[in-house]
Design a protein that fits this description.
By secondary structure, the protein is an alpha+beta fold. Helix content is 28%, strand content 34%.
């Protein structure tokens, strides 16, 4: 049995939408010093579970979900690193249902933060003023629409984003 791992369940954008999101994340990383990362929408982040068990459950979850179309209508910056610069999703009943189903994957508590679906653009460990300047430099026009057609299990030890590794991915 695998030891416990800090894991996250992410939705990945479809091939038609991924390049623009990856390019913006990369541009912001270069300009503002954010680590680069794969574009994603976190269903459940930062839980601990045996990796082999989480992989089996994630495969089952992927078989229950279909592709999800998400509209991002807000750009925001908050204090936690994982929300230092992000696009906020418009209310979406299918996405909320996917989150509810995804919670079953977690062997332990998923945290107390309510589900606020978002797509991070940068992880900036910086004062609010710099985050606001970075937000003003965003090249994407709102609303941003994207289809998410893959579920992935990631090992996401914090706070070192460069250490994140994809465990497995499943088509939806």
């Amino acid at each position: 049995m695998n030891p416990l791992s800090h894991l996250s369940l992410w939705l990945h954008p479809a091939a038609r939408d991924e390049p623009a999101l990856r390019a913006e994340i990369g541009r912001l990383a270069t300009r503002w010093g954010s680590p680069p990362f794969a574009p994603h929408l976190t269903l459940v982040g930062g839980f601990d579970a045996p990796e082999d068990e989480a992989r089996r459950r994630a495969a089952d979850l992927a078989s229950e979900l279909g592709p999800l179309d998400v509209e991002f209508t807000t750009l925001a910056s908050e204090e936690p690193l994982h929300k230092s610069l992000f696009l906020g999703a418009a209310p979406n009943a299918r996405l909320d249902a996917a989150f509810g189903t995804a919670v079953r994957i977690c062997a332990g508590p998923v945290g107390e933060e309510p589900f606020r679906p978002h797509l991070s653009l940068a992880y900036l460990d910086a004062p609010a003023e710099l985050r606001e300047r970075a937000a003003a430099s965003i090249a994407l026009s709102l609303p941003v629409r994207a289809r998410f057609d893959a579920l992935a299990l990631w090992r996401t030890p914090m706070p070192v984003v460069e250490d994140w590794r994809r465990v497995d991915v499943w088509a939806l």
